[in-house]
Write a structure and sequence with these properties.
Arc Repressor Mutant, subunit A, D-Maltodextrin-Binding Protein, domain 2, elongated, disordered C terminus, WH_DNA-bd_sf, LysR_HTH_N, LysR-type_TF_proteobact-type, DNA-binding, LysR family transcriptional regulator
Length: about 300
């Protein structure tokens, strides 16, 4: 047990970046963390961390040892989860990573409901849009929106998110309502920023998809920021329904171009194949399915944009 405690103190220090930060995570003093790591180094007969007055960094021996420790701790977590699985009781630490937009707007407001239902599950949630290596980071479930690509993850389709074009009543009174996608050239549009440029708005027509380039007073890579700008009358937006539903219900925004639809985006729960039988994962994915209107597919399939 002493060796395992030393490993936990060491790996937490590496991940936290300092003894003080590790101590806060572990609920002990920084000196206790430092002493435990030093004791581990004496037992191994090598230096694991290179210490300066300003920072800590892994030595070559420390890096190799850290990688093995991560695998050891992961196996211990799997053993713990196996016990929970055997007892059919959802429990233990559940690591979830969600894309920003569905995470903030759909998942976070309903989390208290899930945690009340399963009090023995402890949730570690991260919100981000970048690529995530689920296996390397020990993520149990990812919530992602968009098309899938081949991968080793299992995907469960949760539903499809529609995209609405909206503007504030004040903006529409001043600038008028666009009647066709081509009318957007005469309007200020707030676009989602990707790789330095706003995404074009792609409309479905009988002849296929048409892409409309947009321009406006500003663009951003955060849906909530764009929604706030539209409410303030700065321009039109094209965002997922769950981002604008509340503002539409309050009359802060109004839909336009309703007869000119933009393609819906699929929403998936993704998980490593060694996680799908765990009760905590199963109940969480079932919970996610209730957040989206369209019923999930009955057969999970491999693939996934992570």
């Amino acid at each position: 047990m002493s060796a395992l405690a030393g490993i936990e103190f060491f790996t937490t220090t590496v991940e936290a970046g300092s003894f003080a930060s590790a101590a806060r995570r572990l609920g002990v003093t920084a000196s206790a963390v430092s002493r435990r790591v030093a004791q581990l180094e004496r037992e191994l007969g090598v230096s694991l961390l290179a210490r300066t007055t300003r920072s800590l960094s892994l030595t070559n021996d420390g890096r190799a040892f850290y990688e093995r420790c991560v695998r050891i701790l992961e196996e211990l977590r799997e053993a713990h989860d196996a016990i929970a699985r055997a007892s059919k009781k959802p429990s233990g630490l559940l690591r979830v990573d969600a894309a920003l937009s569905p995470g903030r707007n759909m998942l976070v407001p309903r989390l208290p409901e899930f945690l009340d239902r399963y009090p023995e599950i402890k949730l570690a949630l991260t919100l981000r849009d970048q690529f995530v290596d689920a296996a390397a980071e020990g993520i149990d479930v990812l919530l992602r929106i968009g098309p899938l690509t081949d991968s080793s993850l299992i995907a469960r389709h949760l539903g499809d998110a529609r995209v609405y074009v909206c503007g504030s009543p004040a903006y529409l009174k001043k600038r008028g309502r666009p009647k066709t996608p081509l009318d957007l050239a005469k309007h200020d549009c707030l676009g989602y920023l990707r790789e330095g440029r706003p995404d074009a708005w792609r409309f479905q027509t009988e002849g296929g998809i048409i892409a409309v380039d947009i321009a406006g007073p500003y663009h951003a890579n955060d849906a909530a920021t764009l929604c706030d700008g539209a409410i303030a009358g700065k321009g039109l937006i094209a965002l997922f329904e769950y981002t604008v539903d509340e503002a539409l219900a309050k009359g802060q925004l109004v839909r336009v171009l309703e007869e000119h639809t933009l393609p819906s985006w699929p929403v998936h729960a993704l998980y490593p194949k060694n996680r799908h039988l765990l009760p905590k994962v199963r109940v969480f994915i079932d919970f996610l399915a209730t957040l989206f209107r369209k019923a999930p597919r009955t057969e999970p399939r491999r693939a996934a944009r992570r």
